[in-house]
Amino acid sequence: KDTEIIVFYPDDGVSAIQKRQMLTQAGDNVRVIGIQGNFDDAQRGVKELFGDTALEEELQRKGYVFSSANSINWGRLVPQIVYYFSAYSDAVANGRIKAGEKINFAVPTGNFGDILAGYYAKLMGLPVAKFICASNSNNVLSDFINTGIYDRRREFYKTVSPSMDILVSSNLERLLYSITEDDAAKVSEWMQQLTANGTYNVGEKVNNRILEEFFGAWVDELETKETIGRVFNDNEYLMDPHTAVAWRACEKYRLVSSDDTYCIVLSTASPYKFSDVVLEAAGSEEDAKLEPFDGLRKLHALSGLPIPEPMLAMEKMPILHQEVIESADMKKAVETALKL
Q1: pLDDT tens per residue across span 74-127
Q2: How far apart are the C-alpha atoms of 314 and 136, rounded to whole Å?
Q3: Which of 104, 154, 247, 282 is least enclosed by beta carbons within 10 angstroms?
Q4: What is the 3-state secondary structure (H, E, C) of 25-88?
Q5: Residue 284: pLDDT above 90?
């Protein structure tokens, strides 16, 4: 009640099942709009809307206030902080670690939100030794952690782990604010350099401070698929591509550091959302060519893992949202949706 929801997503930057989840949304207060661009284009457009003072005044006249459901909104991180404490508590309860023992977390990362929540959990007292920041081929974050230089001036890759296909990681700004002991002026200067030049360098002192907390590793497409197949064959555990990136990054960390500290790998999505990739990795290339819902059933037959009922139900649900726009037209779309 009293809420209007507008979703922007990269039209060619999500899996078939993810897209179906959005296009079949039936709420009368929901509008879903694809954009011709990637996640960075969508997020940049939303930030521009948030910073548009004329639009803000018009919204206020109509009784509207903007908020965001992704990690532009700090409130997105709050429940994620809880996950880290919950996972740690489970590890203690299951006898895997002793209370107070430091552990590691491996996190598949694109916008740096989930892993930042883990860092905040550590600041709140959670015993964490190292955060393993796992990137896919869009490895801007792992490069930054290892060098102190953030450089978005690189090729953008559309990968099998699309939620990590990001070159401008918004929440890194929040980490830098914390690492520099709340030096807002310095962080603002770096962000201005990123906007103007596409790059910034935090220097050796700040970089060393980051390296104390984080290890950066990236995983390519072949490694991602190999990891899905290998873990399924060895452990009968079926993981989605994003989780596989984090798993493989954890293996790489252990290989180069010889650190066998107990590590929790964050699993961020159902493998059924990416059934074609998972089937190719754990089954056969022919399986990967199946239609999305046939793929769900094939993956169930292969793994025995229950298919989420809402996902199966989408097969018979009507497509309600078919609008696709240029990212430059996002403001116009909002004005139309809210009848401004």
Answers
A1: 999 999 999 999 999 999 999 999 999 999 999 999 999 999 999 999 999 999
A2: 29
A3: 154
A4: CCCCCEEEEEEECCHHHHHHHHHHHHCCHHHHHHHHHHCCCCCCCCCCCHHHHHHHHHHHHHHH
A5: no
Q: Is the pLDDT of residue 16 over 90?
A: yes
Give all domains of the chain, ordered by start, each with its CATH number. 5-67+318-337 (3.40.50.1100), 74-265 (3.40.50.1100), 272-307 (no CATH)
CB 273 within 8 A of CB 15: yes
What are the C-alpha distances in Å from 284 to residues 7, 159, 301?
34, 19, 13
Local confidence band at 171 (pLDDT 50, 70, 90 cut-offs): very high
Do the beta carbons of residue 119 and residue 177 sit within 8 Å?
A: no
Question: CA 316 to CA 10: how far, in whole Å?
Answer: 24
The CB-side HSE value for 97 (13 A sphere, CA atoms) comes to 19
